[in-house]
Structures are given as C-alpha cells and as structure tokens.
Amino acid sequence: MSITVKRASQLKAKPDSHQLGFGTIFTDHMFNMDYAPDKGWHNPRIEPYAPIPMEPSTMVLHYGQAVFEGLKAYRHASGDIRLFRPQENFRRMNRSSHLLCIPEYDEAMALDCLKELLRIEKDWVPDAPGTSLYIRPTIIAMDPFLGVRASHTYRFFIILSPVGAYYASGFNPVKIWVTRNHVRAVRGGVGEAKTPGNYAASLYAGEVAHKHGYTQVLWLDGVEQKYVEEVGAMNIFFVIDGEVITPALNGSILPGITRDSVLALCRSWGWKASERKISIDEVMEAHHSGKLQEIFGSGTAAVISPVGELKYGDEIISVTDGKVGPIAMKLYQSLTDIQYGKAPDTLGWIEPV
Ligand code: PLP
Ligand code: COI
Prior knowledge:
Blueprint: E1 4-5, E2 29-36, E3 40-48, H1 59-63, E4 66-68, E5 71-75, E6 81-84, H2 86-99, H3 107-120, E7 132-141, E8 154-163, E9 174-178, H4 196-200, H5 203-211, E10 216-220, E11 228-231, E12 235-240, E13 243-246, H6 257-268, E14 272-275, H7 280-288, E15 292-299, E16 303-312, E17 315-318, H8 326-339, E18 350-352
Parallel strand pairs: 1-3, 9-10, 9-16, 13-14
Antiparallel strand pairs: 2-3, 2-8, 4-7, 5-6, 5-7, 6-18, 7-8, 10-11, 12-13, 12-15, 15-16, 16-17
The structure holds pyridoxal-5'-phosphate and 2-OXO-4-methylpentanoic acid.
Residues 70, 230, 233-235, 254, 256-259, 298-300 line the site of pyridoxal-5'-phosphate (PLP).
C-alpha cells in the first residue's frame, strides 16, 4: 500500500523547546487511514493536521469504541531521530483493538507510515534536555449509528506533539493517593487495553486526589481492593529490602513498555526484579519495618517518576524523605541515556527513522 502525501501550504511557528509542557502543541501534518469491511484498512495518507469531520451520531462519541498509544521520538546528539521500541506500541494497540472489537492492522506497515510522517515533521523533534516528540496513534469507531454493536468503519490517525515533562513538577517526587472508594478496572474487563474509557473512569478519583494536593491516584484491584495495580498514567514499582517489585500483569493493568524496560534493565544488572502480587498492606508494613526503600512510577510520558509521599486511609508515608531515590535516579538516567543515544543500545530497543 503506498502512502499519499499532501503538504500543508503554511507551516506553523515551532515552539521554544525550553518552554514545552505536555500535549498542547501539534505539528503541521498527521497520518490518516480508513477501514471499511469491503476494503479493509485503506487510503493511508499524510495530510495537514486538521479536524476530523464527523456526524454527532458517530459511534465513538457514544460508546467509546477507541484505542490509542503513546510513544516518543528522540533527537540524538548527532541530530538523528530515533524511536524507542515502537514495535511494542503497535503490537499493544492491536491487542487493545482485539479487546475493543476493532479490526487489526498491519503493524510493520503502521510503523513505516509513522516513519514517513516523522521524516516530514523531523524539524518538530525538540532538542532541549528531557524533551521529545510525543506520538499518539489512535483508532476510532466511525459509523453514524446509535445501536450498541461494534462499528463497521474506523479511522486510524497519528498526531505528533513536541513535549517536555509530563508532570509540572518535572523529575521530582510526586504525591500519590491510594483510593479505597473507587476502582479503575476489573479482571475480565478492558483494564489492560489502552482505551479512552479507562481514563474516563479514572477522572473522578483523580479530582478527589487533586483537591487534597495529590498528583495521581494509585489504584487497587477491583475485586478485593487489596492488591496494588497501577497509577493513572504509569505502572508502579516498589523497592523493598533490595527487591524491585511491580504488580504482575493480571488483565486489568496496562502492560507498560517502560515497565518491561525497567524490569529488563534491573535484571541486566543482576538485581532481583519481581512481577508478583503486592498488597497495599505489604507496602505499609515494609514502611513500618524500615524496609521500604523507594517507590516510583514508569511510563512513556512520565519516564521514571519517583513517589515521595503515599496516602492510604488516614496514614501518610514519606518515602526517601520526599527526595529522588538512588534506584529511581539510576533507572531514569540509564533509560534516558539509551533513549537519547548517550549509552549503547545493548538491548536492541532503538529504531532509526
Ligand atoms: N499505565 C497506564 C494507565 C498508562 O496510561 C501508561 C502510559 O502509557 C502506562 C501505564 C505506562 O505504559 P508505557 O510504559 O507503555 O508508556
Ligand atoms: C503515555 O505515557 O504515553 C500515556 O499515554 C499516559 C497518558 C498521557 C495517558
């Protein structure tokens, strides 16, 4: 399938790469492709960034049948642009699609289309430390229909946004609220899919947390509300008595690509890195006995995000005195060194554009 390219007649002014926030600025072009039952995925095209015309009855607006991804392009010191494990994102989006009854696409072809888009938008990849071009592939259900069923037609698009740190606090410890009143996902549901409804379901508890001065919610399992799952936009890690622990994938947690990379790095250093059930009681007890060394989150947008404070019920615990712990620091440094080409890519994670 060949991609058609229609260039924007006017280009936007590029932002100052030292002033970037997250997700507010979009580049000149986007990728689009459509699905129809008789044609499959067809008409891949790069066009000027523009609104998507749709009827008010469009299914995605009513029943949320959609999936998305988040990955980044990094500018290396040589000026070259590189991706970090993009195959994993396109694979995960197909897995999400499967759960949402969205037709799967050719992953290699999608990656080729992304690279083509990035070659056109290469000047948008910022070069200030810690910045990157955030990539948001998305698929939405397009039938104009109000009955509940899977849509017959879809739009696949990719938009690009130059970004700095996800949290306004940058690489500084965040405060996390463990909610006992709400759940985000349940086993057998769509928690492991990257689908908008999971984020919609997280907003109410997020607002409660914000009102109390907390950045994010840490979700417990949807059945017993006993085991730790993940944070709103990142997976979670605990370091207890020398063991790096993250909750095992159980169907309701997003299988994070940064999570997988953190486990691989820890294991490559000979550390004990476990994927297992971990209860919130175990975390609190580890703190009481002085064995809880660090807590941090992992995600594409959040990178490695140290947790300085955790509130569970009436108890507030301070971790690493509210400072960045040495393990979070080493992981942040090692991961970003690989992503920005400052360290050798021994694990084969870097993809040229
Ligand atoms: N968990 C949730 C709910 C997320 O939105 C994200 C971000 O994509 C993650 C975890 C981390 O996943 P990844 O490391 O693949 O970005
Ligand atoms: C990411 O880390 O890529 C995410 O998608 C998190 C959030 C912005 C939804």
